[in-house]
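Below is how a single chain appears once it has passed through the pipeline. First comes the sequence as given, then the structure the pipeline wrote out for it. We keep one example in the README because the format questions we get most often are answered faster by looking than by reading.
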Amino acid sequence: MNDIQLHYIEQGQGQPLILLHGNGENSDYFVHQISCFCHDYRVIALDTRGHGQSPKGEKPFTIKQFAEDLHGFMDEKGIGKAILLGFSDGGNIAMEFALKYPERVEKLILNGANLFPSGVKPLYQWPIEIGYRIAKMFSKKSEKAKKNAEMLGLMVNEPHVEPIELARLTMPVLVVAGTKDMIKDSHTRLIYNSLPNAQLAIIEGDHFVANKNPEAFNTIVETFLAS
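Resulting structure:
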């Protein structure tokens, strides 16, 4: 049972398709996916704990806890099985969830996900780590710094998934990244190659391809879901 009520947007009917946003974002990120997929699916875009309009609650602010929150949410809504589409940290939440509750996942779409922090290109990871250290220094004196430290900490300290663990995910998986993604290309391919039943799509754009290049992104996802 969740200690908090997660805020969500729901549109459409049919098979549940749950959208999980990235770090520091909210369900608005998926505006182009909600309007596209609601014609064929029951689309549910969540605000993760402590993001958007979802309260932070008292439980740990971790990827594993966010996966537990998703489990509690699905139980509350009577959703036995869903398609999960996760972007960035949302992809990491979807991965954690699928590893623990594979029977609850119909298909999995991992966009810009990573197994461990070093999967992020140093150009992007270093500023995150510096920002995290600064925010942590001021976190006892400032509530804003504390919140910043918690958000950045998700990307500095997590996730921790061994590639070998992905062999357990036998459901169909689509691995998506941008041509100029902040996730290393070799890391995206490591995820893809570690999954027994996966497809790989590299789309023109940066980390935020779903939002900035939605036509290409949605077409690839639609083809995957229909196959």
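The helical segments are 31-37, 63-76, 89-100, 122-138, 143-157, 185-194, 209-212, 214-226.

See the next section for the split statistics.
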